[in-house]
C-alpha cells in the first residue's frame, strides 16, 4: 500500500518477513528504523556541500503539515518518511564546516552513533541502581572530563541539557552554599527570609548566566565592568565586593567571551573573590576546553581554583545536542541542593546518583556521548580538536584582513572572529548576503557599539578548505555590496 508521501507499508501478513521477525510489531520497528537510517545517512552525506540557507520558514513547514489529528493509525515507517520529506526544507545545515553561528559544533561519529544507541536503550539515567550501564559510563566520562580540564578530582559532575541548565545547577548550589555559610538553610526557609544575596559578573556576562541567575533567585547580575575584549574588570569587582561585605555573594567569571573569545584573569579575580568570602562560578560553555590543549591552557590559568564550572559538550567537544556539563568542587554541596528523594526511589547510597547532580529525575543518558567522544579521541585527539578550531579562527582572521574595506575587531585569542566594515549598515548587509547566498552562515551581532558579523568556529570539520571557501564567500559578498 502506498501513502500520500509515496512510501509503502504493509497491509497484510504476507508482506511481513518471517525470518528473525516473529511479530508484526517487530517488523514495524525494523522498517521504521531502516527508514530513519536511510534518511539520516542521506542528510549527513549532503550536509558538507548543501547550501546552509533554509529553503522555507516555519510558516512553510506548517503549511506542509497535515494539522488534523486523524482517528486512523499509520505505519511507523510511513510516518518517518513523511517526517523527513516535510522537515528537510526547514532544516539548516548546522553540521556544515562553514556554519559559524551560535557556537554549536558538529557531531563526532562515535558520539552520534552512541546517541542513537542511547535512544534505542531508552534508559532513564537517574539512579545508578536500575541503570548501571549508563550511570557507570557517565561516571567515567565525568572523571575523564575533570582530568582533561584540569579540575579537582572528586568534583561533582552532572550532565544537564545545555549551558543554561548547567549554569543553573551550579548557581543553585552556589546560592545555597553562601547562605549556609551564614547559618541559613534555603532548602527549608526559601530565599525570602534569608540573608541578603548578591550576584556579580563582568559587563560581558553571557545571557545564559543571566537567565540561570534569574531562575536561581539571584536576580540579574550586578555588572562590575569589563575591558575592551570583555574580560571582567578586576578592580571593579574588588570595589563591588568591598561595598557590601556582609552580603552572601556569588561571582560569575567567563572562559571565552561569546564575541571576542577572551578569558577572564582567573588567578587574580578568584583570589579577590576568595578574600571576600564569595563563591566563584565559571561559565566556560566553549572556552573551558582550552585547558585540554598545551597551546591554549594558559588561557585558563587559575580556573581550577573556582568553586563551580559549566560547559557544553555539544560545543567544542562536538557531541550531539542536549549535553551540558555542571561541575561543582564540593559534590556534597551539589547533591544537597539538587538531590531529590522519595519512598519509591532507590535508597540513598554512599555514592550520589545522577539525579543528585542535575535538576531532573527523568532524563536520557546524555553523558554516554561524552564517553564515546573521549574514548574515540583520546587525550591527544581532544587537544588536536581544540587546536584545530583555534587555528581555523586565526586563519579566517588572516584571510579577512586581506579583504578591502573589512576589519577584524577582536583580538583572536581562541575561536571567535568579529568582522566589520566601516559602516554598520554595510556590515549588517554583508551578514544578510552571506546567509542568503548559502556558502557560509554567520551571525550578525553588535559588539562594543558596532555591528559585526560573528564567526564562531566550533565544528571539527572546519579545515583549510572550509576556511578558504569562507574567505572567498566573504570577499564576494563585500564586492557585491560595494564594500571598499
From TrEMBL:
Q: Which cofactors must be present for this protein to function?
A: pyridoxal 5'-phosphate
The record, for InterPro entries, names: Aromatic_deC, PyrdxlP-dep_de-COase, PyrdxlP-dep_Trfase, PyrdxlP-dep_Trfase_major, PyrdxlP-dep_Trfase_small
Residues with N6-(pyridoxal phosphate)lysine modification? 315
Mind telling me which Pfam families this protein's record contains?
A: Pyridoxal_deC
Q: Which GO terms describe its molecular function?
A: aromatic-L-amino-acid decarboxylase activity; diaminobutyrate decarboxylase activity; pyridoxal phosphate binding
Q: Where is the composition biased (Polar residues)?
A: 1-10
Enzyme Commission number, as recorded:
4.1.1.86
Query: Keywords, A to Z?
Result: Decarboxylase, Lyase, Pyridoxal phosphate
Q: Does the keyword Lyase apply?
A: yes
Region annotation (Disordered) ranges? 1-20
Taxonomy, superkingdom:
Bacteria
One of the GO BP terms on file:
carboxylic acid metabolic process
**PANTHER family the record matches:** GROUP II PYRIDOXAL-5-PHOSPHATE DECARBOXYLASE, MIP05841P
Family recorded in the similarity comment: Belongs to the group II decarboxylase family.
| Protein name, per record | L-2,4-diaminobutyrate decarboxylase
Which species?
Microbacterium terrae
Amino acid at each position: 500500500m502506498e501513502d500520500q508521501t509515496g512510501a509503502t507499508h504493509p497491509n497484510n501478513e504476507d508482506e511481513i518477513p518471517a525470518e528473525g521477525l516473529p511479530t508484526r510489531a517487530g517488523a514495524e520497528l525494523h522498517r521504521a528504523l531502516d527508514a530513519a537510517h536511510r534518511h539520516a545517512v542521506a542528510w549527513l552525506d549532503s550536509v558538507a556541500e548543501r547550501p546552509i540557507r533554509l529553503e522555507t520558514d516555519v510558516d512553510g513547514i506548517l503549511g506542509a503539515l497535515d494539522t488534523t489529528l486523524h482517528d486512523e493509525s499509520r505505519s511507523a515507517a510511513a510516518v518517518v518518511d513523511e517526517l523527513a520529506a516535510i522537515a528537510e526544507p526547514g532544516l539548516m545545515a548546522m553540521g556544515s564546516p562553514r556554519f559559524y553561528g551560535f557556537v554549536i559544533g558538529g557531531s563526532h561519529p562515535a558520539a552520534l552513533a552512541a546517541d542513537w544507541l542511547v535512544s534505542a536503550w531508552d534508559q532513564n539515567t537517574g539512579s545508578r541502581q536500575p541503570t548501571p550501564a549508563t550511570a557507570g559510563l557517565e561516571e567515567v566520562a565525568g572523571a575523564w572530563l575533570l582530568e582533561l580540564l584540569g579540575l579537582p578530582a572528586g568534583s561533582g559532575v552532572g550532565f544537564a541539557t545545555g549551558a543554561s541548565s548547567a549554569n543553573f545547577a551550579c548557581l543553585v548550589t552556589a546560592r545555597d552554599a553562601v547562605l549556609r555559610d551564614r547559618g541559613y538553610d534555603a532548602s527549608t526557609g526559601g530565599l525570602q527570609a534569608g540573608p541578603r544575596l548578591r550576584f556579580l559578573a563582568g559587563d560581558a556576562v553571557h545571557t545564559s548566566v543571566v537567565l540561570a541567575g534569574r531562575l536561581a533567585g539571584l536576580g540579574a547580575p550586578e555588572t562590575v565592568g569589563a575591558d575592551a575584549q570583555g574580560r571582567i574588570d578586576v578592580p571593579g569587582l574588588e570595589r563591588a565586593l568591598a561595598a557590601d561585605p556582609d552580603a552572601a555573594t556569588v561571582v560569575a567569571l567567563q572562559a571565552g567571551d561569546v564575541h571576542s573569545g577572551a578569558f577572564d584573569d582567573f588567578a587574580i579575580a578568584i583570589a579577590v573573590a576568595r578574600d571576600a568570602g564569595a563563591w566563584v562560578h565559571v561559565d566556560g560553555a566553549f572556552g573551558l576546553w582550552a585547558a585540554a590543549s598545551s597551546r591554549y591552557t594558559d588561557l585558563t590559568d587559575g580556573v581550577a581554583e573556582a568553586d563551580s564550572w559549566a560547559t557544553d559538550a555539544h560545543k567544542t567537544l562536538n557531541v550531539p545536542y542536549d549535553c551540558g556539563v555542571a561541575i561543582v568542587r564540593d559534590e556534597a554541596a551539589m547533591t544537597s541542593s539538587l538531590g531529590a528523594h522519595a519512598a519509591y526511589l532507590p535508597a540513598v547510597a554512599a555514592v550520589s546518583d545522577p539525579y543528585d547532580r542535575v535538576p531532573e529525575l527523568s532524563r536520557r543518558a546524555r553523558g554516554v556521548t561524552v564517553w564515546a567522544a573521549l574514548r574515540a579521541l583520546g587525550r591527544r585527539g581532544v587537544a588536536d580538536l581544540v587546536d584545530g578550531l583555534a587555528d581555523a579562527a586565526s586563519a579566517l582572521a588572516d584571510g579577512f584582513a586581506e579583504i578591502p574595506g573589512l576589519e577584524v575587531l577582536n583580538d583572536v585569542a581562541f575561536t571567535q572572529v568579529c568582522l566589520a566594515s566601516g559602516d554598520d549598515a554595510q556590515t549588517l548587509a554583508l551578514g544578510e548576503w552571506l546567509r542568503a547566498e548559502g556558502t557560509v552562515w554567520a551571525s550578525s551581532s553588535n559588539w562594543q557599539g558596532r555591528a559585526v558579523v560573528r564567526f564562531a568556529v566550533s565544528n571539527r570539520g572546519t579545515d583549510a578548505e572550509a576556511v578558504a571557501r569562507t574567505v572567498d564567500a566573504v570577499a564576494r559578498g563585500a564586492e557585491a555590496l560595494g564594500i571598499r
